Amino acid sequence: MRSIPIIVLFCLISGLQVANAQSYFDGKFRIAGYTHKGYNYTLYDFSREGGKIKAKYFAQNAYTQYQNWKSGKQVLLITAGAFSDSWNQDGKPVGLCVDNGAIVNRVPNSDMDGMVIVYNGGAQQGGLAVVDMDIKPVTVQNPTGSYYPRTSAEDRTNFLSWGETNGVTLFQTQLVYSSDRSSSNANLTYGSKRERRFLAICRKNNVVHHVVVNAPDDLELNLSASYAKAVLDYDGFSVLFIMNLDTGDKNVLHAYDGSYLKDMKPYKGSSTYADRAKVENATNLLIYYTE
Questions:
Q1: What is the pLDDT of residues 263-273, one digit of tens each?
Q2: Where does the signal sequence lie (predicted)?
Q3: What pairing do the DSSP bridges indicate for beta strands 145-147 and 207-219?
Q4: Which of 39, 46, 101, 205 could bond 167 through an S-S bridge, CB–CB 3.0 to 4.6 Å?
Q5: Which residues on neighbouring strands pair with residue 256, listed in sequence order?
Q6: Bridge-partner residues for 111, per DSSP?
Q7: 234 pLDDT higher than 50
Q8: Residue 227 DSSP class
Q9: Residue 157 CA: distances (Å) to CA of 147, 151, 162, 169, 285
Q10: Distances (CA, A) of 10 to 83, 225, 247
């Protein structure tokens, strides 16, 4: 039985207000602020039309890899992706993880139902594929196969071998919304009250969008996710998946403001906590950029 229930599909959007909006790079990157029922939500919207804006993920020696990679690129957003198994910089992402063909974590997390594959090259470079592993197997190409890597040791071995051979980047995460589910009995009060950040995969006008949703106010996980879904719906998106990103000790968020990449300082608490949340101490980094 899953321990992280999917949010309910229906949410009233009364009282939703637009706070601000800016767009850059011919509208391919947009920042929109909303207030819903007194809670603040900021959408960092990346259009995948034309493939100009791309996603990148680093999962081992993340900051060093980022420093070596970033030359010649305009970085638009940096945040933590998968949850970390340690406060230390040398911690690993929780759940199955492969970084550009190097296996970082072979141990699956039974509660995390989302598998995210990051395209490192080819026509889909910078795109993401998301699989709801409670509903479907992970299907891959070169060679073709379908795997249940959480529950089958043989499938897991073959899946990770495929990732190594093909230089794949992938990580396991927690879904809080999946369009693959026809119904839900979610408990909206599930989870502690705290700030949240989500990654939504959506469509608008037949174009795929990746939307990082920053939710700085303290709310339960599923309630905050349901409000995020309402904001995305209001903004005109057809939502496919919403994933929960790490806002614990590795609560990193840097965003482009039209001039430079700004540390949004989302972390709360003591100076010790703030130090852990520096980008140079990140266990893993999810990055959006253009060239």
A1: 998 877 656 66
A2: 1-21
A3: unpaired
A4: 101
A5: 261
A6: none
A7: yes
A8: H
A9: 10, 11, 9, 16, 25
A10: 28, 12, 25
DSSP string, 90-150: T--BSSSEEETTEEEE----TT--EEEEE--SSTTTT-EEEEETTTS-EEETTTTEEE-TT
pLDDT tens string 53-64: 999 999 999 999
Query: In this structure, how many other beta carbons lie within 10 angstroms of the beta carbon of residue 254?
Result: 20
What would the pLDDT profile of 160-183 be if each residue is shown by its tens digit? 999 999 999 999 999 999 999 876
Distance CA 135, CA 150 (A): 12
The 3-state secondary structure of 181-204 reads CCCCCCCCCCCCCEEEEEEEEEEE
SS3 75: strand
Nearest to residue 199, comparing CAs of 136, 110, 286, 133? 286
What pLDDT, in 10s, does the model give residues 55-88?
A: 999 999 999 999 999 999 999 999 999 999 887 7
Q: How far is CA 202 from CA 7, 47, 110, 197, 207, in A?
A: 16, 10, 25, 16, 8
Provide the pLDDT for residue 267: 79
Please give the pLDDT value at position 271: 60
**Residue pair 244/211 in contact by the 8 Å Cβ criterion:** no
In terms of C-beta density within 10 A (0-12 exposed, 13-18 middle, 19 or more buried), how is residue 171 classed? buried
Question: Can you say how many angstroms the Cα of residue 111 is from the centroid of all Cα atoms in its chain?
Answer: 16
Q: Name residues whose C-beta falls within 8 Å of residue 5's C-beta, 6 or more positions apart in sequence.
A: 184, 185, 186, 187, 190, 222
What are the sequence ranges of the domains in the chain? Answer: 16-290
Residue whose pair of structure tokens reads 């852990």 in the numeric block:
276
